[in-house]
Specification:
- By secondary structure, the chain is mainly β.
- It has 2 domains: 125 residues, no CATH class; 106 residues, no CATH class.
- It is built from 4 helices and 15 strands.
- A hairpin with a 2-residue loop joins strand 8 and strand 9.
- The relative contact order is 0.16.
- The model has no long low-confidence stretch (mean pLDDT 87).
Length: 273
């Protein structure tokens, strides 16, 4: 791994990168041979890349004007005859901050453009399929198909028969422990009921929660909140987030999240917005 070369690629974006040996953290064990974080010091934000000795980190594509690059981490196969493991990360700048997103392994990705396509929800890709026009225009934050804020895509959904009694006001939309995107009006349909608390931000089903309470009776005192996992979600009105410009949605829009949560590589990303 050529740390100086990697840093020079990030320099082209106007970003700083610190590349150093992987340091195991007793409070947060590394899931793989690399940990990528967005750090901050007196000079501002930087990409903090920690890599084990056996991991080869390289930059596959750099787009300075777009302020994005595609990073690949290759590690040797565990046994002879098996292919090497390749994890890819899209690193770049989105509105106000630098970010890193793991790219799904199933997608044939070799450039920034194809990484962005792979990170789009399947629902968005299906709607765009067959449409003419330059692919780069489809990566703007607002197109005829969607409005995007961070990892969330909002697709126009006129005619949604929302029950106004079930419409929630100023409702948070979040992924794990990330900062919430607050929606002026939100309507959920379907999904699975889960119970969320600080110890389990992604939630437990009723069965999983009961099993936990049997093992640990003190867990009953944790601040549990009932929420819906994987419902069909619609929002309208103002959507705000601390790190993004506020957007305004006229009429109901269906919500879809990008595909980074489908990526094995995302286990190496320490930063969540």
């Amino acid at each position: 791994m050529d740390a100086t070369l990697i840093q020079s690629k990030f320099d082209k974006l106007g970003a700083r990168a610190k590349v150093r040996p992987l340091v195991q953290n007793r409070w947060r064990q590394a899931a793989g041979p690399v940990v990528i974080d967005i750090g901050s010091d007196r000079r501002g934000e930087f990409f903090d890349i920690q890599a084990a000795d056996h991991a080869n980190v390289e930059v596959l594509d750099v787009q300075p004007r777009d302020r994005h690059l595609l990073l690949m981490v290759r590690q040797p196969a565990e046994r002879p005859g098996l292919p090497d493991t390749k994890d890819k990360f899209l690193c770049g700048h989105d509105e106000r901050h630098w970010f890193v997103a793991g790219v799904p392994e199933a997608a044939p990705v070799s450039s920034v453009v194809t990484a962005k396509e792979a990170l789009k929800p399947e629902l968005v890709r299906n709607l765009e399929s067959g449409k003419k026009g330059k692919r780069k225009k489809r990566h703007r934050r607002k197109t005829e198909t969607f409005v995007r804020q961070g990892e969330w895509f909002f697709l126009p959904a006129p005619g949604v028969p929302a029950n106004e009694k079930l419409v929630l006001q100023h409702e948070p939309l979040r992924r794990g422990r990330g900062k919430p995107h607050v929606c002026e009006s939100l309507y959920r349909v379907g999904g699975t009921t889960v119970y969320v608390c600080g110890q389990y931000p992604n939630g437990l089903t009723e069965k999983e929660r009961k099993a936990l309470l049997k093992r640990n009776t003190a867990a009953a005192k944790w601040n549990w909140t009932a929420m819906q996992r994987d419902p069909t979600v619609f929002v309208r009105g103002k959507v705000s987030h601390a790190d993004h410009a506020t957007i305004y949605l006229h009429g109901w829009h269906r919500v879809a999240m990008n595909t980074e949560n489908q990526s094995r590589a995302m286990e190496s990303v320490a930063f969540l917005d």
